[in-house]
Amino acid sequence: MMNFNFFIPTKIIFGKGRIGELSENIPSGYNNILLVTGKKSAKLNGALEKIKFLLKDKNITVFDEVEENPSFDILEKGREIAKKNKVEFIIGVGGGSPMDAAKGIAVLTNNEGSMRDYMKGKKPVNKILPIVCIPTTSGTGSEVTPFAVFTDPENEDKGGYANPDIFPVFSIIDPELTYTMPRNVIINTGIDAFTHALEGYFSTKASILNDYLAVHSIKIIAGNIIDAAEKDNLAMDRISYASMVAGIVIANAGTLLLHAAGYPLTVYHKIPHGLANAILLPEFIRFLKRKEVLVEKIEIVENIFESMGGIEKFLNEIGIKTKLSAYDIKREEIKNFVEKTIHKKNLLITPVKINEKDLYDFYEETF
Ligand code: NAP
Ligand code: FE
């Protein structure tokens, strides 16, 4: 059996209503806390009020300006607020966007320079603030990953920052907080989780243990996403769980070509992250099949979707169009998409060597 590492230092607190255990899990000595969240949903679903109540004995500063696919600019704003309030501890509440922004602010508060520098390899010299994540979508798995994804508006690019020091110290995954998601967010984020499990399963960093979790997560998502989209609470609870498991999978094996190729769709066409992955997913599988790699693993995944007529039909039936032309994307854009994607580290752990022509064909085949 091959050698492998498996690392997940985050304490997982999973279950309905367990947001109530927030305060007792915060290590003593931290009084100045920054709550990082999005503009609306944590207010609408009551999560923010609940958290403020639970932490009424602490000095809480709320930073509620995080937009979808957070940019470097929002991190600068967050850093300023964190410094001004002498913040010692950061809680990210929301979807992947606020959770990732919380991680970025935790890096920058005590460290000079922009997140762009750190994404290029600069090492933080001072302490990264401890982070807690409380997801309100069921998709990114950011609550259990050492990753944060940011948009660079100047360079029209999106990419991930990885550092084991941004694993949350603990995360509370309370599925009740996801019940207010509209259908499209349930589907997009659920498919994001599915692609995490799938890409981790196909990664060159895959391991026997991680593979077990990946297939476990894929089966749960395949079996529950349709009911979850209809707001069946038990199915939504299961997707919350499966997306957290898929987060553990990518924490250990990363995401591949599919995630990297999806970023330009979000940057240039504002296509939500999970939907971008979903559009390209059938071609990702066809691409690996053409390259004749991972034949057995692909078969295992395809068998899970057999009763639903295959993965592409399954996606189409839940309302996802799997052609780029359906999103007003033009063939002339492919060249730029390829340039933006070809140097991404995700390609290095994809189980085939990918050249520019491969990537060009990958997008072309999706029209
Ligand atoms: P998101 O961008 O955080 O949120 C999408 C939308 O859903 C927002 O409009 C948000 O509203 C709303 N929303 C969130 N929770 C809701 C709820 N309970 N009820 C109703 N609406 C709700 O979406 P996401 O897919 O979770 O995160 C995407 C980001 O995570 C991307 O930048 C992606 O690249 C990144 N990502 C990170 C990792 C990682 O490991 N760190 C992995 C994969 C993806 P508000 O803004 O008003 O709150
Ligand atoms: Fe993702």
What report would you give on this structure?
The protein has 367 residues and is α/β, with parallel strands linked by helices. It folds into two domains: 11-177, Rossmann fold, CATH 3.40.50; 182-364, Dehydroquinate synthase-like, alpha domain (Up-down Bundle). Helix content is 48%, strand content 13%. The strands form two sheets. It has a six-stranded parallel sheet with strand order 1-8-5-4-2-3, sandwiched between helices. The protein has a two-stranded antiparallel sheet with strand order 6-7. Residues 140, 192, 196, 259, 273 line the site of fe (iii) ion.
Helix proportion range: 40-55%
CATH top-level class of the largest domain: Mainly Alpha
The CATH superfamily label of the largest domain reads Dehydroquinate synthase-like - alpha domain
Percent of residues in beta strands: 5-15%
Rg from C-alpha positions? 20 Å
The CATH level-2 architecture of the largest domain is identified as Up-down Bundle
DSSP strand count: 8
- Structural class of the helix and strand makeup? alpha/beta
Task: Figure out the total of helices.
Answer: 15
Average pLDDT, rounded to a whole number, is 97
Indicate the overall shape.
globular
